[in-house]
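Can anyone check this?
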Amino acid sequence: MRSRCSLSLFLLLLLLSAPNRSFAVEPYQQIKDIEYATADHHRLLLDLYLPKSKQPPLVVWIHGGAWRAGSKANMPLINLVKNGFAVASVDYRLSPVAKFPAQIHDIKAAIRFLRGSAEKYGYNADKIGILGSSAGGHLVALTGVTNGNQQLEGDLGDFKNQSSSVQAIVDYFGPTNFMTILSQSTPHGLSVRIPALELLLGDRPEKKPDLARLASPVFHVDEQDPPLLIIHGDQDPQVPINQSHELQGKYEQHQRDVTFKVIHGGAHGGPEFFDAERLQFVEEFLRKHLKT
């Protein structure tokens, strides 16, 4: 009896001495650092979050960071995973490593990989949604409005027979027109955006107009583009809200499905963009357009 009590006391003390250890079972599985392609000996990786449900719909998250920083580790859509979505958070070559269009080539390769790996991981990739913020918002908008564009497709990865098309876009405050963004920017915005664009394009947009247009979603919108949800703060000091108005206008011009949610008083990101109310709206948008 004494030895049994001592063992129980020992186990209790062991549990109390490890306050940071979680014994709860997470409602999803996370698989880190899946290699989806290589480029110039650079491993391209993604993290996959899989809910417990069978054949969940798939969405792709693209991080921001002025195209020169950021990481797939910063993935704000855990509540979507808990509500039954599979989420792939994708790293891509940053601008100090490779100039545009490397970033879009990487993302389209990731989508081809994810579509080709659906049976292996157990999600439904018939229809894919893509979401991103800031520079990631730019990249997801560009990905979505260039479905089938061979100039931006690239040839990375082992799934070249798969489609890189997406069927829904959620753009959080992303740049959309590199030919107008500087003239719309505040002094603070210029201090951030000019060096970022020079690093991404190799020079200021007016010095590389053809490349700047190729990189700008507004120049690619047509009658085939998938539904688009734009979320932007009206006090954004880095990416002018006019950038989102331009993309909205192009969608409306081509009679495409577009919804624009303005965060009144919102700056350049913050928790209010991913609170329960906004994520519920995003979830409803995705469920509507990813039905199979």
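Reply from J.R.: I decoded it. The chain has one domain: 25-289.
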